[in-house]
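An instance noted here:
***
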Amino acid sequence: MGLRTAQISDASVLAAISIQVWLSTYIRRGGVNAFFADYVLSEFTEEKFRSLIEDADEHIVVSENKDGLDGFTRISSKSSAPIDNCSTMEISTLYVQPRHQGNGIGRALLQEALRHARDAKVPSVWLTTNSENTSAINFYTSQGFERIGTTHFRIQNQAYLNDVFRYAFP
């Protein structure tokens, strides 16, 4: 595993990983319906990732193995937190392909995201995760994040409860 900054040529792979991880994480019962299929196909596109990679306020780090990419993290430097007492630095995405989870990739990507935030001299970094995603919640709390509130993730008129976590730098 090696970490590097995302390149434009990674955009389609980042879209594919996002769709794979999102569906495997959030579609736990039954099958994929049109509502969620339409969401992932419109949200996770090569064009959107090209735009993010070129945006100076976004920083994407990928994890690469001998066969290709297996995960990535995205750090947004001008995000408005959903609750008070947070910086504008958000870890907006941390995705690792399901078959590569549990091998230290997520931890390495998170440490790189925290290093990036520390280098930016922000007092803290924040993120959200679905309130039912116990594996993510356990992971972030084990890495020193503190749950500081809740918000809702919205897809059209549907709202999904999310926990807000903050990591404060010493």
Remarks:
- The radius of gyration is 15 Å.
- The longest strand covers residues 158-168.
- The chain has a mean pLDDT of 95.
